[in-house]
Amino acid sequence: ENGLRVASQNKFGQFCTVGVLVNSGSRHEAKYLSGISHFLEKLAFSSTAQFGSKDEILLTLEKHGGICDCQASRDTIMYAVSADARGLDTVVNLLADVTLQPRLSDEEIEMTRMAIRFELEDLNMRPDPEPLLTEMIHAAAFRDNTVGLNRFCPVENTDKINRDVLHSYLSSYYSPDRMVLAGVGIEHEHLVECARKYLLGVEPVWGSGQGRPVDKSVAQYTGGIIKVEKDMSDVSLGPTPIPELTHIMIGLESCSFLEDDFIPFAVLNMMMGGGGSFSAGGPGKGMFTRLYLNVLNRHHWMYNATSYHHSYEDTGLLCIHASADPKQVREMVEIITREFILMAGAVGEVELERAKTQLKSMLMMNLESRPVIFEDVGRQVLATNTRKLPHELCALISQVKPTDIKRVVTKMLHKKPAVAALGDLTDLPTYEHIQAALSSKDGRLPRLYRLFR
Fold first, then answer.
1. Residues 182 and 254 in one domain
2. pLDDT tens per residue across span 376-394
3. Which InterPro entries does this UniProt record tie to the protein (predicted)?
C-alpha cells in the first residue's frame, strides 16, 4: 500500500522464518563513504525505539524460541528472524523497529568500529584467502563501480562513519519501494495483516524527507588485475604448517540472473566444479567435474582449483580460483587459461547430464531448509516482483544443451579477463600474457625466451 512488497510461502510447521530484505548494499555506496553497509550489518538488532538493548531483543525472541541474524552483501541487506510461528506479531513488530527505528547510539557505533577493525585484521590473517580474493576479483572486474566497490569498510573510514552519515544513507535507501517483507512457514494473510499493523505509515527515525538520489548506475565491466604481494609462509596457526601457497583467481564477465543465459552459466559452473586437493568424497562431491578430472587429478602439486559464479541484477562473474607453490605459478595460470578455452570446445553428453542433475539436486537440497527458502523468496521478489518455483527452474536446467554452453562461453571469452593474485608473485605472468592466452586457440601463455650470454 505504500510500496512495500510482502511475499510468503506456507509450509506448515511450528517454526517460521520472517525477515526484511532491502535493496541496499556496498554497490550503492558510490556517493557515500565506503563501509556503511558493513556498519549497518554489525549494528543490526541493537537498541531501538521500543527495545533498550540487544539483550532485550534477544530475551524477547527467546520467549518464542527465536534467533536473529543480519547479512549485508553487495546488493542486499537482510534482517531475518526464525521463531515459533505463534509469535509472528512480536517478530514483525521487532523487525519493523530494527529496520526503521534503530537508536544507533554513540556507544553502539564505537563498539561496531572496534568489531570491524578486528574483523579486518582477521581477514588478512586467515589461512583461507577466499573472502579476500573474492573482494579483489570484484574490484578488478568492475573497477571503482557498483559491485566492484569494497564490501568491507576500509580501515581509514571506521572513524568517519557516524550517526549522521548512517541516517543520510538510510533516508535514501531504506524506503518502502526498496523493501520486501518475506516469510516462510506462515499464513500469507496473517503476514499481510502484521505488515499493515507494524510497518504501514511508520515514520522512520531519520525522518520522511528524501535523502540523496538513489544510485541507479549499471555495472560497468572493466577487467584488469589486482595484485597483493604477501608473505604466505606463516599463515598456518596449528602445529602442522600449511605450505606456502600463491593464490590466483581468473574471472570473465558472465550475465545477470535476470537473463536467460543465467541457467547455462549455472550448469557450466557445476560442470567445472572442483575443490581442494585434500577434499575426500564420491561423485556427489563433484569428483567427476572438469577441475577434478583435468586439473587436480593430473597435477598433484596444485592444492586447489574451484569454479565460482557470482551473479547480480545487471552482471555476473564466472571465475576459477587456484593455488599452488609460488615456483609453479606460471604453470598453474596456464592450466587455468587452458581450461577456460576448453569450455568452448566439445561438451560430453554424460558430463552435461551429470552437471544438470547435480545442479537440480543441489537446488532441491538447499530448498529443504527454511532460511534458504526465505532468502530465495525474498531475493527473487525484491529483484523481479515474482518468484520462479523450484520445478520451473529444474525444467529450465533440463533444457540446457551443449550448444547453449558453447554459445555462452564464446561470448564470455571475448571479454578482457579479471585477475586477482595473492602471495609470492615473482613468477606471475603479466596481465597482457594472461589476456593473450585467453584469446589464443589453445589457452597457452606466450613463450618466454631467455637470452644467455
1. no
2. 999 999 999 999 999 999 9
3. Metalloenz_LuxS/M16, MPP/UQCRC_Complex, Pept_M16_N, Pept_M16_Zn_BS, Peptidase_M16_C
